[in-house]
Automatic annotation (TrEMBL):
<dbReference type="GO" id="GO:0004550">
    <property type="term" value="F:nucleoside diphosphate kinase activity"/>
</dbReference>
<dbReference type="GO" id="GO:0006228">
    <property type="term" value="P:UTP biosynthetic process"/>
</dbReference>
<dbReference type="GO" id="GO:0003341">
    <property type="term" value="P:cilium movement"/>
</dbReference>
<dbReference type="GO" id="GO:0048515">
    <property type="term" value="P:spermatid differentiation"/>
</dbReference>
<keyword id="KW-0808">Transferase</keyword>
<dbReference type="InterPro" id="IPR036850">
    <property type="entry name" value="NDK-like_dom_sf"/>
</dbReference>
<feature type="domain" description="Nucleoside diphosphate kinase-like">
    <location>
        <begin position="12"/>
        <end position="150"/>
    </location>
</feature>
<dbReference type="InterPro" id="IPR007858">
    <property type="entry name" value="Dpy-30_motif"/>
</dbReference>
<dbReference type="InterPro" id="IPR001564">
    <property type="entry name" value="Nucleoside_diP_kinase"/>
</dbReference>
<keyword id="KW-0418">Kinase</keyword>
<dbReference type="Pfam" id="PF05186">
    <property type="entry name" value="Dpy-30"/>
</dbReference>
<protein>
    <submittedName>
        <fullName>NDK5 kinase</fullName>
    </submittedName>
</protein>
<comment type="similarity">
    <text>Belongs to the NDK family.</text>
</comment>
<dbReference type="GO" id="GO:0005929">
    <property type="term" value="C:cilium"/>
</dbReference>
<dbReference type="GO" id="GO:0006183">
    <property type="term" value="P:GTP biosynthetic process"/>
</dbReference>
<dbReference type="InterPro" id="IPR034907">
    <property type="entry name" value="NDK-like_dom"/>
</dbReference>
<dbReference type="GO" id="GO:1902176">
    <property type="term" value="P:negative regulation of oxidative stress-induced intrinsic apoptotic signaling pathway"/>
</dbReference>
Length: 185
C-alpha cells in the first residue's frame, strides 16, 4: 500500500517595511540589519508621499489625536518602502521593530530597531504591517504593480507553463536552431 504524500510547499510571507523620513540617511545601515535578520528585500523604492497619500495610507488611524502630526511627519521628506520576505515575515518584522513607542522600546527591547533609531512615540523610525492582510493592503499601496497572488502549483502551474512559457521557449529555440550562431549567447 502506497501512502500519498502531498508535495512539499514553501510558504514565504511578505510584509511592508518603511524607513521613515527622519532616518532615511541610515538606510544602508538599517538594510544591513534587515538582511542579517534573515529577510530578503524583494522590492524597494524611495518616494515622498503627499499629506493626502499619507492620510490614505494611515486611514485606519483617522480620528485619533496624533493623526495630523503623523501625516505631517510622514510627508515631511523622502522615505524608503521595502517589501520584505521570509517565513513568518510579519511577526518577525514586528519583533525586530520592537514597541511602537521608541522610549518604551529602549526600556523593554533595547536591541530593537525602534530603540536604536527612534526618538519618541511618533518618530519611531520604521513602520511595519500589523497583520498579513494589512501587509497585502500596504504593499499594494506602496507598490501598485506588485503581484501578491500565491505562486501556482500543480495543474495551475502546468497550465501556465503550457500557455505562456513553452510557446515562447519553442519559438526562441526554433529560431536559434535555424540560425545556428557561432556564439548563441
Amino acid at each position: 500500500m502506497q501512502v500519498l504524500m502531498p508535495e512539499p510547499q514553501v510558504f514565504v510571507e511578505r510584509t511592508l517595511a518603511l524607513i521613515k523620513p527622519d532616518v532615511v540617511d541610515k538606510e544602508e545601515e538599517i538594510e544591513e540589519l534587515i538582511l542579517r535578520s534573515g529577510f530578503l528585500i524583494v522590492q524597494k523604492r524611495k518616494l515622498q508621499l503627499s499629506p493626502e497619500q499619507c492620510s490614505n495610507f494611515y486611514a485606519d488611524q483617522y480620528g485619533k489625536m496624533f493623526f495630523p502630526n503623523l501625516t505631517a511627519y510622514m510627508s515631511s521628506g523622502p522615505l524608503v518602502a521595502m517589501v520584505l520576505a521570509r517565513h513568518s515575515a510579519v511577526s518577525y518584522w514586528k519583533e525586530l521593530l520592537g514597541p511602537s513607542n521608541s522610549l518604551r522600546a529602549r526600556r523593554t527591547h533595547p536591541h530593537s530597531l525602534r530603540a536604536i533609531y527612534g526618538t519618541d512615540d511618533l518618530r519611531n523610525a520604521l513602520h511595519g504591517s500589523l497583520s498579513i492582510s494589512s501587509a497585502e493592503r500596504e504593499i499594494r499601496f506602496m507598490f501598485p504593480e506588485a503581484i501578491l497572488e500565491p505562486i501556482p502549483t500543480g495543474q495551475r502551474a502546468k497550465d501556465y507553463l503550457n500557455l505562456y512559457v513553452k510557446p515562447t521557449l519553442l519559438a526562441g529555440l526554433t529560431a536559434l536552431c535555424k540560425e545556428k550562431p557561432a556564439d548563441p549567447m
